[in-house]
């Protein structure tokens, strides 16, 4: 069998990360097998170990990939009004019915946080790093940024979790509206 070029291997690696980050958010870490990920990536199960030492290593890399996807637009925006607008757009999208319904492209902390909290090692470290990144982005340049960023994150994560638990669209929308009012109050009173 011919060897894969470095470029082909990188493309395969990216496909695996994309598939894993989507499936882990959609289905959960425990219920998604390496075979599921490789099939979704269009690759054979046997090729997995050319890319990752273990499922745990894949979980950590896929989590970081997912965080990079959802935070990249805000992080790339220039400081000042453009970053504030990107941050506002992020919060608006976060507290939307679309985010409630589509876990596969949404916040990895909301989708995988509870499972990752039970893990040790690289995935746990990636989650802590994601908390720091998100807290900084939510309050860039503000006084008391760390505390306010963590409070905002708690409100966002709690809101999306409760909205996903709701048994009706009406209740889900009520919860999302409460989250929006809560973030506005945090902005006013912090």
Describe this structure in words.
- With 190 residues, the chain is mainly α.
- It has helices at residues 6-27, 34-40, 55-76, 81-94, 97-101, 108-116, 122-138, 145-165, 169-189.
- Helix 3 runs parallel beside helix 7 and helix 8 runs antiparallel to helix 9.
Defining key terms:
mainly alpha, 190 residues, single chain, Tetracycline Repressor, domain 2, 73% helix
Q: How many individual β-strands?
A: 0
Radius of gyration, Cα only, in angstroms?
18 Å
Distance between the termini: 62 Å
Number of helices: 9
Question: What would CATH call the architecture?
Answer: Orthogonal Bundle
Low-confidence stretches: none
Overall structural domain count = 1
User: β content, as a range?
Assistant: under 5%
Quick take:
With 190 residues, this protein is mainly alpha-helical. It has helices at residues 6-27, 34-40, 55-76, 81-94, 97-101, 108-116, 122-138, 145-165, 169-189.
């Amino acid at each position: 069998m011919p060897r894969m070029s470095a470029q082909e291997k990188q493309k395969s690696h990216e496909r695996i990360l994309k598939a894993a980050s989507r499936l882990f958010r959609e289905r959960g870490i425990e219920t998604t097998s390496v075979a599921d990920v490789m099939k979704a990536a269009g690759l054979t199960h046997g090729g997995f170990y050319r890319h990752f030492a273990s499922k745990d290593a894949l979980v950590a890399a896929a989590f970081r990939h997912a965080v990079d996807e959802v935070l990249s637009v805000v992080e790339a925006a220039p400081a000042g009004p453009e970053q504030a607008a990107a941050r506002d757009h992020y919060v608006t999208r976060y507290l939307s019915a679309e985010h409630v319904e589509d876990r596969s492209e949404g916040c990895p902390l909301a989708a995988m946080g509870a499972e990752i909290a039970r893990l040790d090692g690289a995935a746990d470290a990636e989650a802590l790093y994601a908390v720091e990144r998100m807290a900084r982005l939510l309050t860039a340049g503000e006084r008391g940024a760390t505390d306010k960023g963590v409070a905002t994150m708690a409100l966002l994560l709690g809101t999306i979790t409760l909205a996903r638990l709701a048994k009706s669209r009406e209740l889900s929308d009520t919860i999302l509206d409460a989250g929006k009012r809560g973030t506005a109050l945090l902005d006013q009173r912090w």
